[in-house]
Amino acid sequence: MNDLKKELASSVIEHGVDGRLAAGQLALELMHEIRNPLEALGHLVYLTRQDSGNPELIDKYMELAAEQVETLNRIASQTLGFARLSTSKKSIDLVDLAEAALRIHRRTIEAKQIHLVKKLPSELQAEIHSGQILQVMSNLIVNALDALPEKGTLSIRLRERRGTIDIVVADNGSGIAQEHAGRVFDPFYTTKEDSGNGLGLALAKRIVEEHGGTLRTRTSVSPERRGTAFKISLPR
User: Which residues is 92 bridged to in the sheet?
Assistant: First the structure.
């Protein structure tokens, strides 16, 4: 991270106190990027041990682990420019990617006895950076699981319509209060007192937008239809 240190020092020299604040925000952003793939790797190690007798599953877990290592290597070599990629987009089956994101969080899903609803086609291809969109899906699933009580419902749906591909991650948790709903994508804004730094959704939104798509949310705290849904829309 020598380049990062140089960038932070340059920011402080050039901008003084404001530079130190900007440098701190940059450091937090990069730390958040690192934490997600490290957490994913931890889940994959657990799954590998649990399914050690199934070579086919082990191969899949290792492939996903390699993607996370690639993400960490990219972060380590960057100073600025979150989500700048050194490789080109590839045609990826989003259904496989959604299943992979769910497998990463299988331990939490099982521990909380979450009712999982999947509405997935047999195949749905898109030109994407797979590691980044996997990170977005994983982030949205984490947010849903955090909001859900035991035996709550998590749903994930993929569909293609009018030249776009929609990925919807929804939960029937407590919902987001109106005064907070409009700021969920603001960097450093969080309603979690004990955890979270308010960067996850902001970074997810940036990844989706750099793919030419949109990330939106719909939420309700009404007892009749309580819950939150996030929709990723990607160009076909």
Answer: 126
